[in-house]
Amino acid sequence: MTLSANIPVIAIDGPSASGKGTVAQRVAQTLGFHYLDSGAIYRIAALAARARNISWQDEAALAKMAAELDIRFEGGEIVLNGEVITDAVRTEEISRGASEVAVHPALRSALLALQKSFRQAPGLVADGRDMATVVFPDASTKIFLTATAEVRAERRYKQLMEKGNHANLHDILQDLQTRDARDRARPVAPLQQCDQARLLETSQLSIEQAVNTVLDYHHADTQALSNQ
Ligand code: DC
Predict the structure, then answer these.
(1) pLDDT value at residue 54
(2) Would the pTM count as exceeding 0.90?
(3) Substitution site in 38, 116, 130, 179 for ligand 1 pocket (most atoms within 8 Å of beta carbon)
């Protein structure tokens, strides 16, 4: 068995709708690595709380609830206690809920072991807000992937329109900015670029270019490690 600490992790942190999920998934596919969408875990917590009438402000009840959730990622679907909830966690309402529940340290601690369990051979690509700082501080490659709020709002707008949903660009931009502010300002595990992370600004990049840049960083870091 490979020691967990020897399993490479590519940590990709960044704000909402930066495209980090798409980029992380493609990098994982290319390398044959596992993939962790940590934002989905906070979304699941928000959705599960709603279903159980637990307030998004009730830290103790949220942490207790989290310990009892059976969360599975199966072939692109999210399954919670046997029920497929892939689309239900992607609504704007649950996006807001995820950002609200994510401020509670007790809930974050309750979700830590689950996130760490994704570190399996031959490697992991993990995306979120605190992958490089809290969950995998020893990640072999750390990237802070971002784009301007306007570009991110437009990307989200296009996604929603393509799915046939009603969308308003102005509201999306405002929601994103509110969520960014909350994610950055919280005292525990705030969204921030850590010292060792490389900044990847994707406003002017295609998905392909962003994926290739992450792969280049990973290869450079792997090379540097093997030269040590
Ligand atoms: O990446 P996302 O938009 O699916 O994340 C939803 C929310 O979850 C986001 O507003 C902040 C929170 N989150 C977090 O606090 N820590 C993470 N590692 C990932 C997401």
Answers:
(1) 98
(2) yes
(3) 38
What mean pLDDT is reported for the chain?
Answer: 93
**Which string of DSSP letters, residue by residue, matches the chain?**
---GGGS-EEEEE--TTSSHHHHHHHHHHHHT-EEEEHHHHHHHHHHHHHHTT--TT-HHHHHHHHHT--EEEETTEEEETTEE-TTGGGSHHHHHHHHHHTT-HHHHHHTHHHHHTT--TT-EEEEESSIIIII-TT-SEEEEEE--HHHHHHHHHHHHHHTT----HHHHHHHHHHHHHHHHH-SSS-S---TTPEEEE-TT--HHHHHHHHHHHHHHHHHHHHT-
Q: Decide if pLDDT at 180 tops 80.
A: yes
Residue among 22, 35, 42 whose CB has most ligand 1 atoms within 8 A, to mutate: 42
Q: Report the pocket of ligand 1 as residue ranges, CB < 6 Å.
A: 16, 38-39, 42-43, 98-99, 102, 128-130, 179, 183
Higher pLDDT, 33 or 190: 33
What the chain holds in terms of domains, given with CATH numbers, is 8-223 (3.40.50.300)
Distance 227 CA to ligand 1 centre (A): 35
Spatial distance between the Cα atoms of 105 and 67, rounded to a whole number of angstroms: 14
How far does the centroid of ligand 1 lie from the alpha carbon of residue 2, in Å?
Answer: 29
